[in-house]
Design brief:
49% helix; Nucleotidyltransferase, domain 5; 5 domains; 867 residues; Rossmann fold; single chain; alpha/beta
């Protein structure tokens, strides 16, 4: 049966939106995207597709001035502009149709009604048995005929009232052919079309019953009694105009045929991904999900002579027991392609030459966390090449919140799968243990199968979000990071233990003085006991109260800096943290050769910055002289070698200058005079030679505070000045850098509209907080929106620099050993000091073409403290 379903897209999405909008409880996903219209539309289409049909089509209005607007200026003029909450949903509705492979069309010259009328005429000519039109617009009723039914949406969008040839007259008391005559008589308030004054529903029906159409009514006014006759004679031209404008065009020529409306297969995983992005869990539950099933066969390979030459492009997963893959136990490797599902045991992995040849071959390899895969193979002297895809990195770029070290969590965001969580297989924490080989082998193979299903879904997303170039950089970086993790940092154990002993001694001395001032000994680490000493016994003024009592946080103690005991407690805490976190923490993870091997988390932070664990090299203290001393323990592995630091100078401010296009900021960065000094001169309105250290300190605080959305109150707290003075400084700052102010305002506006910010390299950060009704949360979202493109772009730049530098020093003895935000750290062979400086500076400063120069400061010394 040839049955065509034609849908008025605009009508359906309006109904879907306003069905819930009036309550004020609009649906939103975690990214702040409003979803009530999308949800209603999807629900309706799901219901429609339950009916038997062969063809389906959706028409939209293009939102432009059609021929009706040109003929009648007042046409639809009373309609309100679409709310932003609905506008942001329209692209998603169209994307939904594209995912389902449902043909859609819109025209700049005609309305959706006309498109549907024209397709109806074509379908009737083509011999379709039935045509169903779904709309909320009763203009479409003029199309009802023997084979054409019109279904009008009522009570929201999910209930339909059918009008067909058999019931039409009973419902309307006129015939379909009289619909436009009826509108000519009574008008149409929804389209702002006038009718004849004094003629309502009953009169119009009576006249059409007697005279059949508008033209006959006008021609026979002498047979019509009273005021109605006079009104028709006076306003018949209006009626004719309204009838003409209400009559649908049915002769539009299309650049496609009815074949394009035929029902087609679609990618279920892509639809699952769409529903998950918008958090439509009920639609997911209803869906006949195409799952990546655990019902598969696989082969365990323990044979060191097994022939792997049959494998082509492969999906690979390395199975490691333990959180730290540098020290974890290798369980094996799973490889699947389109014809084979293999799990290779540890013995075969380490010794099978055919497998090693495959891993080194030009066949494409797809994986999840290629840094881990590459590293584990390399430390076991196995080379792997042509790693073209990492599902972990792809998920992270698509949405930072998707990233997880457990493939199951990531997969759940994009496809439906029966894959287990790792904890379900191995247990967690102290209860973790290795299960039977068949259990973990099947789990590993299933991971490879899931990766295979994820790749096309993710590739499409990366392309859609214009992230392909950034993704390739992250792939390259993962290999750079793997080599950094393997090489590690050399630590002088004696220096570290001596520092620990001195810190413990100094901490004890500070504790004795605290006890002396308190008049008794107590547990300084106990908040309750400390609160009693400070506020009850000594009478220090409390500044902040929590649910459990007065706060003794560092912030509170800093405000009590006029009291010796408050300063001593802060000092005690610093000693305690240095000793426990850094001294003892590093000694615990140091290997027998006195190296530490931090693991870099490439897919963790929301901004794109790297983080590290075991130990957290990024958080190595630098703000205090005491904290900096720990850097003295990091030394070169080479005899007479040096530790070299290359640090981007004010990179985030330079990125801000470029992105904001602020002419003053650009000019100042292109000047050789210190940027903070120039800023101080402008803020204080003094000559640059009169800027003192305090002026520069204020300017520096404002420069960096602006990047993080610092308020006048925040600045006053940081500089210990009045809120009024801080406000005046910020006002002067934005007067000087008005381009920065315009940029920051526009960034918040765009992020609120889109739900996310983007870096220069298209890295996204989603900000649902911007649509929060909680003022504090919304303010946080605004500050984050201002900072994310700047900090994220700076993170992208240093990542690109790492890839470039690593490539340029590949054949040298010196090594890139650490990244700490804007700083790269190198262990340099004594024969390569000059060459490394030149290569690193050139590689880092040329990495991006900005409107201001990128400047890298380089220094070196016998240890990290001395650089």
């Amino acid at each position: 049966m040839k049955k065509l379903v034609l849908i008025d897209g605009n009508s359906l999405m309006f109904r879907s939106y306003y069905a819930t909008a009036y309550t004020g409880q609009l649906m939103q996903n975690k990214h702040g995207i409003f979803t009530n219209a999308i949800y209603g539309f999807c629900n309706m289409l799901t219901k429609i597709q339950e009916e038997e049909m062969s063809h389906i089509f959706v028409a939209f209005d293009a939102g432009s001035q059609t021929f009706r607007h040109k003929e009648y200026e007042e046409y639809k003029k009373t309609r309100k502009a679409l709310p932003d909450e609905l506008l942001m949903q329209i692209p998603y509705i169209k994307k939904y149709l594209d995912i389902l492979n449902i043909k859609r069309h819109e025209s700049l010259d005609y309305e959706a009604d006309d498109i549907i009328a024209s397709l109806t005429k074509l379908a009737l000519k083509d011999g379709f048995n039935q045509i169903d039109i779904i709309t909320g617009d009763k203009d479409m009723l003029q199309l009802v005929s023997e084979k054409v039914n019109v279904l009008i949406t009522i009570r929201g969008a999910t209930n339909l009232e059918e009008y067909n040839q058999d019931n039409f007259y009973d419902k309307m008391e006129i015939y379909p052919s009289q619909v436009t005559d009826y509108k000519g008589l009574v008008g149409d308030t929804s389209d702002n079309l006038p009718g004849i004054k004094g003629i309502g529903n009953k009169t119009a029906i009576k006249l059409l019953s007697q005279f059949k159409n508008l033209e006959n009514i006008i021609a026979n006014t002498s047979l019509i009694k009273g005021k109605v006759s006079n009104s028709i004679q006076k306003e018949y031209k209006i009626a004719i105009k309204t009838k003409k404008l209400s009559t649908l065009k049915d002769d539009i020529e299309f650049n496609f045929t009815l074949e394009a409306t035929k029902l087609k297969e679609y990618d279920h995983n892509e639809l699952i991904s769409f529903y998950k992005e918008l958090e439509f869990s009920s639609l997911l539950d209803k869906m006949d999900n195409k799952r990546v099933s655990t019902d598969f066969t696989f082969k365990i390979i323990d044979d060191e002579k097994f022939d792997f030459s049959v494998i082509k492009d492969g999906y690979i997963n390395i199975e490691i027991f333990g959180n730290n893959y540098l020290h974890g136990e290798i369980l094996g490797l799973s490889i699947v392609d389109r014809n084979h599902n293999y799990f290779i045991t540890k013995k075969a992995l380490l010794n099978n030459k055919s497998l090693h040849a495959y891993l080194k071959s030009d066949f494409k390899k797809y994986s999840f966390d290629i840094k881990k895969l590459y590293l584990v193979l390399k430390i076991n002297n196995i080379e792997i090449t042509n790693l073209v895809f990492d599902a972990l990195l792809a998920g992270y770029l698509i949405d930072p919140s998707y990233a997880s070290e457990d493939l199951k969590k990531l997969a759940n965001e994009l496809i439906n799968t029966d894959l287990n969580f790792d904890d379900a297989i191995y247990g967690a924490n102290k209860k973790a243990k290795i299960p039977d080989e068949k259990v973990y082998a099947k789990h590993a193979v299933n991971k490879a199968l899931v990766i295979r299903e994820l790749v096309p879904v993710m590739e499409k997303k990366l392309k859609e979000y214009e992230l392909e170039e950034l993704f390739m950089m992250e792939l390259d970086l993962s290999i750079v990071l793997a080599n950094m993790e393997i090489d590690g940092l050399k630590v002088n154990r004696k220096t570290l233990t001596d520092l620990g002993a001195k810190i413990e001694k100094d901490q004890d001395e500070v504790a004795e003085r605290i006890y002396e001032l308190a008049g008794e000994t107590f547990n300084i680490n106990s908040v309750k006991q400390l609160r009693t000493i400070l506020f009850d016994k000594l009478g220090l003024p409390p500044t902040k109260k929590t649910k459990t009592g007065y706060s003794t946080s560092s912030e509170v103690l800093e405000k009590l800096s006029d009291y010796e005991i408050a300063n001593l407690i802060l000092e005690y805490r610093e000693y305690n943290k240095l000793n426990s976190t850094y001294i003892k923490g590093m000694i615990e993870v140091m290997n027998d050769d006195d190296y530490i091997h931090p693991l870099y988390k490439q897919a963790l932070t929301m901004t794109g910055r790297l983080s590290s664990v075991e130990p957290n090299i990024q958080n190595m203290p630098i703000r205090t002289k005491l904290g900096q001393i720990i850097r003295k323990a990091f030394v070169s592995r080479f005899d007479n070698g040096v530790i070299l630091s290359s640090d981007y100078s004010q990179i985030e401010l330079r990125v801000l200058a470029h992105i904001s296009k602020d002419e003053n900021m650009i000019a100042m960065f292109n000047d050789k005079v210190d940027f903070h000094t120039q800023t101080a001169a402008r803020i204080y309105e003094i000559d640059i030679k009169d800027v003192d250290a305090e002026n520069r300190r204020t300017a520096k605080a404002i420069n960096f505070g602006i990047i993080y959305g610092m308020s006048a109150w925040g600045l006053s707290e940081a500089l210990k000045i009045s809120a009024e003075d801080a406000h005046n400084y910020i006002e002067r700052y934005f007067t000087t850098f008005n381009g920065v102010k315009d940029y920051l305002d526009k960034t918040i506006e765009d992020a609120t509209k889109n739900g996310y910010t983007k870096t220069l390299y298209n890295r996204r950060r989603y900000l649902p907080e911007l649509n929060s009704s909680n003022k504090a949360l919304k303010a946080f979202g605004e500050r984050t929106a201002m900072n994310s493109p700047i900090q994220g772009t700076a993170a992208d730049i240093i990542k690109i620099a790492m890839v470039n530098v690593a490539k340029n020093i590949k054949n040298m003895k010196s090594k890139l050993i650490a990244q700490v935000h804007d700083e790269l750290l190198f262990d340099v062979h004594p024969e390569e000091i000059d060459k490394i400086q030149e290569i690193v500076k050139r590689s880092m400063e040329s990495v991006a073409k900005l409107k201001v120069p990128l400047i890298v400061d380089i220094s070196y010394g016998d240890n990290w403290l001395e650089v």
